[in-house]
Design brief:
Layout: E1 7-15, H1 17-22, H2 29-54, H3 60-66, E2 67-71, E3 74-80, H4 85-99, E4 106-113, H5 118-133, H6 149-156, H7 159-168, E5 171-176, E6 185-187, E7 190-193, E8 196-201, E9 207-208, H8 228-231, E10 236-238, E11 243-246, E12 257-264, H9 267-273, H10 277-301, E13 303-306, E14 316-319, E15 326-328, E16 335-340, H11 341-358, E17 364-371, H12 377-393, E18 401-404, E19 407-410, H13 411-425, H14 431-442, H15 452-461, H16 468-484, H17 489-510
Parallel strand pairs: 17-18
Antiparallel strand pairs: 1-3, 1-4, 2-3, 5-8, 5-9, 6-7, 7-8, 10-11, 12-16, 12-17, 13-14, 15-16, 18-19
Helix pairs in contact: 2-4, 2-7, 10-11, 13-17, 14-15, 14-17, 16-17
């Protein structure tokens, strides 16, 4: 053992998160998802407290120094290398495996001795974590134990109540119990597992819920939680006196939901390349602050101004995201959001703009799908994850994109798409004409060159547009840039897809 440091790094990593959160019925899903997601954060906090107690770290200043990172569903602690520390880590793994039985979740816990080479230590810790995941199937497992269906049903009915506790309280506290509960045990405003009791408090005496984005709820006027159907509908505005009748989901357009999944690209590799514990902790704090506090600020404070909607061109400031975004933060850097499709699209763009400003050396990938409000939650979760993977991996070496309508798009080209969409919205075009222009443009996306007749078709379908000459000129410019992109397949294809995607968005705007 290294006598200079005489310490270890311990990593906890929750697996099975997506299946646990999204395997719910669509009916009342909005009332259940937050509870399930927030339980992941609670699980991490309890696991940290368990380890601090068993390693006898009680001084508040020492506790603060121990926490290297706490991000989403994982954490890293720097703990003293007490006698038999391997046994403590193993027991922690066994206790939480027992506590999480029947939830579908697992908490993998691994440790390494600190050598002084932080980069190498983190790499070894991650390797140890991957190896520890195989131990779930070999450590103290009874393969012939009867499956407790009654218990599964009982706890599955508790997550809506858990969501209510988050909504009605300001903080939560973690306290040790006399014995380790064999499984999750829900009680009045509390849940017990792993030898600890988590209690929700109406005051600030504990860990503030405002530190977690799950505590932000889109509410109806009667102070009940908005269902996904409510979020899919348009705001109700009195155009005569420029007043807000009721905030629903956002601007006019087809009543559909947008499901957004976000992920920081290559964050694991970035963390493994960090040279020091201090740098790791600082980056972790910045990411946590962004994906909780900064996103909360954006949602609560960003305003949109309707201009032509109201009589006499009177400007009406309308909250852009406030009370319209449902956050399902499955992790820290990887997050899910639900809202009206056009509101979620604007939100995705805003998040990326803010992320680039704060993290110029990192990139953000996103998947965005548009679904019916009654679409099964477990299916839209799978589909948006597939869209996110496509954004990250379809074009080798080219991350930091968004996948929309199944198409991988660069963020800067998405800005061009939104600009053309706004232009098309202002034209005297029916949804049918927009659809024909879109299909005509789509037919030539994979061609090596454009033919003159292709422009004639697009021009014909756009003939009723007041600014048809300007629009065609813009499309010609996109074609020229597509050709100049040469072997850059993604950029070339993106420029060819600007009109089809912009026209599709404009169609949805008109409905």
């Amino acid at each position: 053992m290294n006598q200079e440091t005489n310490a270890i790094l311990v990593k906890g990593d929750v697996s099975g998160i997506q299946e646990f959160i999204f395997n719910v019925k669509s009916d009342k899903a909005a009332q259940e998802l937050k509870g399930r997601s927030f339980f992941i954060k609670v699980l991490v906090e309890v696991a940290i407290q368990y380890l601090l107690d068993h390693f006898m770290v009680v001084d508040p200043n020492k506790i603060k120094e121990c926490k290297v990172s706490t991000s989403g569903g994982n954490f890293i602690l720097r703990l003293p290398a007490v006698a038999a520390y391997h046994e403590i880590v193993k027991n922690a793994r066994l206790d939480f495996t027992k506590a999480l039985e029947y939830t579908g979740l697992n908490l993998c816990i691994a440790c390494v001795e600190i050598t002084g080479d932080y980069k190498k230590d983190i790499q070894l810790l991650n390797t140890g974590g991957r190896e520890a995941k195989f131990m779930f199937y070999s450590e103290n497992t009874d393969y012939f134990k009867e499956f407790d269906k009654e218990f599964v049903t009982r706890i599955s009915n508790k997550w809506i109540e858990f969501t209510t506790w988050i909504k009605l309280n300001k903080s939560f506290s973690i306290n040790k119990t006399d014995s380790i509960a064999s499984n999750l045990a829900f009680k009045s405003k509390s849940v017990e597992f792993g030898g600890y009791k988590v209690t929700f408090n109406p005051d600030e005496k504990g860990i503030s819920l405002e530190n977690y984005l799950e505590s932000l709820f889109p509410m109806k006027r009667n102070n009940t939680l908005k269902e996904f159907r409510d979020l899919s509908e348009s705001d109700k505005i009195n155009i005569r006196d420029a007043s807000i009748i009721e905030l629903k989901g956002g601007e006019d357009g087809l009543n559909k939901l947008g499901i957004l999944a976000l992920d920081v690209d290559g964050l694991g590799a970035v963390m493994e390349s960090v040279e020091s514990e201090e740098a790791h902790t600082e980056l972790d704090k910045l990411l946590n602050s962004f994906f909780n506090l900064r996103l909360r600020e954006i949602i609560q404070n960003e305003n949109l101004t309707y201009i032509k909607l109201c009589s006499k061109r009177q400007q009406l400031p309308v909250p852009r995201f406030c009370n319209k975004i449902y956050s399902v933060t499955a992790g820290g850097d990887d997050s899910f959001f639900v809202g009206k499709w056009n509101t979620i699209l604007d939100f995705a763009i805003k998040i990326n703009e803010e992320f680039i400003l704060q993290f110029p050396k990192l990139t953000l990938s996103a998947g965005l799908i548009i679904v019916d409000p009654k679409y099964p939650v477990v299916r839209f979760a799978d589909q948006v994850e597939n869209a996110l993977r496509k954004a990250k991996y379809k074009y080798k070496g080219n991350k930091g994109n968004i996948c929309l309508f199944g198409e991988v798009i660069k963020w800067d080209i998405l800005t061009e798409i939104i600009s053309l969409r706004q232009t098309l919205k202002k034209q005297n075009l029916t949804s049918g004409m927009l659809a024909k222009a879109r299909l005509s443009a789509n037919n030539v996306v994979d061609y090596s060159a454009y033919r003159l007749e292709d422009f004639w078709k697009m021009g014909y379908y756009l003939r009723d547009a007041a600014d048809k000459d300007i629009i065609i000129k813009r499309i010609e410019g996109y074609v020229a840039r597509a050709i100049k992109a040469g072997n850059d397949t993604l950029t070339s294809r993106n420029y060819r897809k600007i009109l089809p995607i912009a026209a599709r968005l404009a169609e949805l705007d008109h409905r």
